[in-house]
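Summary of Year 1 activities. Much of the first year was spent building the evaluation harness for sequence design. The harness presents a backbone, in tokenized form, and records the residue chosen at every position. We chose the following record to illustrate the format because it has been used consistently in internal testing since the harness was completed.
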């Protein structure tokens, strides 16, 4: 029997690596001789680098950069030396988790630190840079990142604009004379599942601004500022990508990446699956086991179990999901390659308790599932 274990992390609890280990341990209690392949996964959000480095024997690198509000922080990024690929997780330098709720300021927060990580990757000789852009604290349309790479954004007096999205309302001139020339020789890939445009009611400011600290009035002002930035950018380049799919990702960083870095967009889980060679690993498998903290209809929006199931479905391999909780309309995933889904807890328990005991709960639930499969295997044996 061959089993491939490819879960995401359980947020605020265990990493994808630890979840995979717990599933393997539970399965082996029933099937000690099974061939088990652990392949920790992610979908482009926090934990993406860890999932790839775990499988691809990459290295962690560290850099002191500016955080979302210009404070000095230590951020990590991933390096695959053999392929000269850098993996940069925007959340490491410009993530919302770096700020207390009271500190969040969508008007002033900046992506400058993410740009500094790109510079570090270029200095290391990166030929390909994968940028995962989940969990941002910013709404500056990626201008902070571009400033770190040498771009200048000037007002009518030729003064550089201060950090943050709101300042873009005063933009009159873009100067790329000092823009890092290595950008032209580098392939950029954005791992993102956000499809929103840059501006408008479904854009970066309206949809994501409030969770980053923007008041209703500030949301309107930010949307206008980003729209003005897109106007000036379109004038400079001769084309306008504000309505492209994903332009509103990460507070508009998607727009900057598409326009200034010529970045390609792909689903985060597809990028991670490709780097981890998941499709190759599941060939000939009898079962694939995946999971995430909350499994519900939102999983359809390109989250890890959905991506894993899509790959397994291509070769008709059954997929089991083990989740912290099963949420609203999770059954919709049964039409997309998921065979069955199970939650961790068998009775009432607090979230804190479930997070604390996640490894034991995951292992125990896996053992239950394996026992069910074992009884079915034995019956088939007897019938023949």
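For this record, the design step produced the sequence shown next.
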């Amino acid at each position: 029997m061959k089993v491939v274990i490819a879960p995401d992390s359980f947020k605020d609890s265990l990493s994808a690596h630890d979840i995979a280990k717990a599933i393997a341990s539970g399965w082996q209690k029933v099937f000690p001789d099974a061939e088990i392949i652990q392949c920790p996964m992610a979908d482009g959000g926090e934990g993406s680098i860890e999932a790839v480095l775990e499988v691809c024997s990459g290295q962690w690198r560290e850099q002191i950069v500016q955080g979302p509000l210009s404070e000095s922080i230590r951020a990590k990024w991933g390096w695959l030396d053999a392929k000269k690929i850098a993996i940069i997780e925007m959340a490491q330098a410009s993530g919302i988790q770096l700020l207390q709720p009271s500190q969040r300021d969508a008007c002033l927060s900046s992506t400058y630190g993410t740009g500094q990580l790109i510079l570090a990757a270029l200095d290391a000789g990166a030929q390909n840079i994968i940028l995962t852009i989940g969990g941002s604290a910013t709404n500056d349309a990626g201008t902070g990142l571009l400033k770190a790479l040498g771009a200048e954004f000037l007002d009518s007096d030729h003064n550089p604009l201060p950090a943050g999205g709101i300042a873009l309302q005063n933009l009159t001139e873009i100067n790329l004379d000092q823009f890092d020339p290595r950008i032209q020789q580098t392939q950029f890939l954005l791992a993102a599942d956000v499809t929103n445009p840059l501006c408008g009611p479904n854009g970066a400011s309206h949809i994501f601004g409030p969770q980053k600290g923007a008041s209703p009035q500030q949301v309107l002002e930010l949307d206008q500022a980003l729209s003005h930035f897109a106007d000036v950018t379109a004038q400079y380049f001769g084309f306008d990508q504000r309505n492209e799919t994903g332009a509103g990702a990460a507070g508009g960083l998607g727009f900057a990446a598409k326009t200034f870095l010529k970045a390609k967009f792909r689903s985060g889980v597809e990028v991670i699956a490709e780097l981890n060679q998941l499709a190759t690993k599941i060939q000939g498998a009898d079962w694939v086991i995946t999971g995430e903290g909350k499994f519900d209809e939102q999983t359809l929006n390109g989250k890890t179990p959905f991506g894993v199931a899509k790959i397994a479905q291509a070769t008709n391999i059954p997929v089991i999901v083990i989740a912290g909780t099963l949420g609203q309309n999770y059954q919709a995933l049964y039409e997309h390659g998921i065979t069955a889904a199970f939650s961790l807890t068998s009775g009432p328990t607090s979230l804190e308790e479930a997070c604390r005991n996640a490894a034991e709960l995951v292992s125990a639930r896996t053992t239950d599932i394996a026992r069910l499969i074992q009884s079915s295997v034995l019956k088939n044996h007897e019938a023949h």
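Residues 26 and 363 are 4 Å apart (CA to CA). Quantitative recovery figures across the full test set are reported in Table 2.
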